Amino acid sequence: MLHSHLTTLNAVSLVLNTFKGEGLPPEDLLAGSGICTADLSRPDARITTNQEMRVCANAVALRGDIGLDLGRQMHVSSYGMLGYALLTSATFGDALRLALRYPALLGTLFALRLQEDGERIWFSASDYREMPAMAIFNVELCLASLKVICDDLLGQPLPLLGARFEYPAPDYRARYAERFDCPLHFEAGNNAFAFDKRWMDQPLPLADAITHQTMAERCRKQNLEFTGRQAWLGRIRQLLAAQLSAAPGIEGLAEQMNCSARTLRRHLRDLGCSYQELLDELRFERAKQLLGEGQLPIYRIAEQLGFSETASFRHAFVRWSGVAPSAFRT
Questions:
Q1: Count of CB atoms situated within 10 Å of the CB of 185
Q2: What is the pTM of this model?
Q3: What are the TM regions of this chain, as residue ranges (predicted)?
Q4: What are phi and psi of 79, to 5 degrees?
Q5: With contact defined as beta carbons under 8 Å apart, do 293 and 275 qualify?
Q6: What is the rounded CA–CA span in Å between residue 109 and residue 117?
Q7: What pLDDT, in 10s, does the model give residues 25-37?
Q8: Would 6-209 and 242-329 be classified into the same CATH topology?
């Protein structure tokens, strides 16, 4: 599945900061993502989830349990206007229900739900459909960050009654006990943590009706703009993905989008990307798929991706992934 979702640079910045003290050059973590260090100084920059996951995959290769550490650093203040709207909600339950209303602003890759189970509420994260190899990392990041948000909203740690995960316990299971101070269950039916449902009615210490109303309205408008951008970018990606063997160029793509090349360039620049970056990302995704299937020789894959020479494809793939196509296939 092509990654059409947009997100912020928050997680990427956290990854770089986490490894900064270890002397690792940021370029090593950004390798293959299409993100450069200059992008990090642009607070309004937007990247695709595929770019974000490339950086996270580089981090996981260095430290398998990094998802738990990153999640612990994702405080409610990381979510901009949505964070302020949550903090100023009247009750804990009001804040959680508002968060679930705007998953695009949360930047989550999961469907989040609040499920009542007797005297418990399970806060679950399901329907993950992105990179399979990054599933455990993303569950760790998601649930650990949701727990931090809950603690920030209440101004105190939210006591958990249990936590469960769909996959077998990793070899660093002890780290889970540090993030989720409750009974842990692996190879469960879903990914979730539970708390006493009485907390849903708990008044929040920073509740403010006037500020909340203002922030909630701004979130509504931002969500409309953000999801509109996602739909627009998704249309561009769909068109390009169908023409990888003979890419239309910026002029041809603009004609297909019923706009001028100048307008298309401006919109892409506002999204923090370019025509060539989108084309490269789609080629990379398709190349990984074809190499993984193992049916076509590399020169045929190069042809299907629009490269006139196999050597050009090899050079591009090394730039994207850090390894040659033949090594990736092996």
A1: 13
A2: 0.72
A3: none
A4: -105, 20
A5: no
A6: 24
A7: 888 899 888 787 7
A8: no
